[in-house]
Amino acid sequence: MILVELRKLVRRPRTWVAIALLDALPTLVAVLLAVTDLAPRPGTGPAFLSAVLSDGSLFPLAALGIVLPLFLPVAVAIVAGEAVAGEAQAGTLRYLLLRPVGRTHLLVAKLVSVVAFVVLTVLVVAATGYVTGALLLGDQPLATTTSVSGTALTQTELAQRTALAIGYVMFSMLGVAAVALFCSTLTDTPLTAALGALALLIASTLLLTLDAADALAPYLPTRYWLAFVDLFRDPILWRDLLRGVLQQGIYVVVFLGAAWANFTTKDITS
Amino acid sequence: MIATRQLTKRFGSVVAVDGIDLDVGEGDIYGFLGANGSGKTTTVRMLLGLVLATSGDIHVLGAPMPEAAATVLPRVGALVESPAAYGHLSGRANLTLLDAAGAGGDRRSRRRRVDTVLEQVGLAAVGRRPVRAYSLGMRQRLGLAAALLRTPRLLVLDEPTNGLDPQGIRETRELLVELHRRGSTIFLSSHLLAEVEQLCTRVGVLDRGRLVIQDELARLQAPTGRTVVRTPDVGVAQALLDGRSERYGADRLLVRGVDAAALNAELVAGGVRVRELGPERRTLEQVVLAATDPERPGYGAA
User: Fold this and answer.
1) pTM, whole model, 2 decimals?
2) Is CB count within 10 Å lower at the N or C end of chain B?
3) Do B147 and B253 lie in a common domain?
4) pLDDT at residue A28, rounded to an integer
């Protein structure tokens, strides 16, 4: 069943359209920067973007920083929200369950396929970022890259930390995926499920800007997303990263548990 | 093959299915009749473990459902309400994915089995066209093909001829008869009386969640003990038969007694011209209407 879900994922035109769209924005940014030579001043704009003009090897990170706050979670919420509700809406859910595919098994397969989508998307964005960065930006051949803290990073260090950052970004999306998957078991309309998950993200983003909501901040799912920047401090600032991983883990456990409890006891009337 | 005991389903305060005892034997073609909203689909979904019963037991192929779904469902082919498929894939790709999705379908024989069922339902020539471009009838055939994919012992079909043209309906009927001949038991849910009358050996009628009739079709349609006479001389015949008959329509009489030969001799001797003569049988429609609508008196007064 897991293989079947993966096959469905890669054979679906929508998967590739979503990835292409996600890829288009950072590529556009790279082209604009290369043409105009106008980088945001340090400390403003998306993470790493101020540095990419002189150092193109940071562009994969900048690309992730561009899609992370909105585009990537929207895509993940749509794909995960569609997982069960989409099958319900198309009527194929009942035929899958009659095959029979166990309900828990189906949910696991859907989760794996959503995770595969996240991994694929992040890798494609990072890879495109690498290529455009190398081609368009930062043509000075540097032996070292300057970390956020101002010290020098060797190319090996940079590669390792970039890999860690990519992994962290993937993991950050699991919370959204779990919430959207849970919503997806509640409704027979994929759009409702995706919007449910997005509502949580928007609320979370909004609350983070309010000082009055400080007490809630550690529990908000978007709180630690941009902590991957901390990987490029010297030394690495692990505190927020670890909290981010722990928090996403808790979101995944809670919402997947809820999704499982709901889906396995639900009347399939679609 | 299917047995339920006091099967009940409530949705909130609405009782959709109210304590029904279904009994479908091996080799039956069981017609499950009921108006829209009578609880047919909910019952079918409960039999297949999609909807969980509020109370009561279900046994399908001798095993309790939904507990034994993993071993029961691979031997059951089902079409529930409308067929469904992924629109961007071809019919063949849909069947292949569906077969691969659940345990029980042998990988090596998959290609051959998909070809066979497509041939059976008359979709073999459709080729690589995506399901999105299928007509309603073609989708219905594809749904039927999916149900047949594992040569099931029990077929549960909900409105299988929905959306088919007369030709398609006849082909489907012939296909079902053929499958039945090869040993499949068929549970056919429908609101089309004619379909059930032509095809089924056993009938269950659901009315507002209750099973009001469950019997062999032949017994439901058994002669009523009266004889129908068609004649232009209705008045003469009634006078002759002296209270044993009642008028039915412009040129028909219903006469108590089953001895058509004696009746014919008597009528002819009395100068009555007889056009047709035969035992009265109730149509399935009459049986069902009499059982389901309390407002309506029995057939005799019609």
Assistant:
1) 0.86
2) C
3) no
4) 92
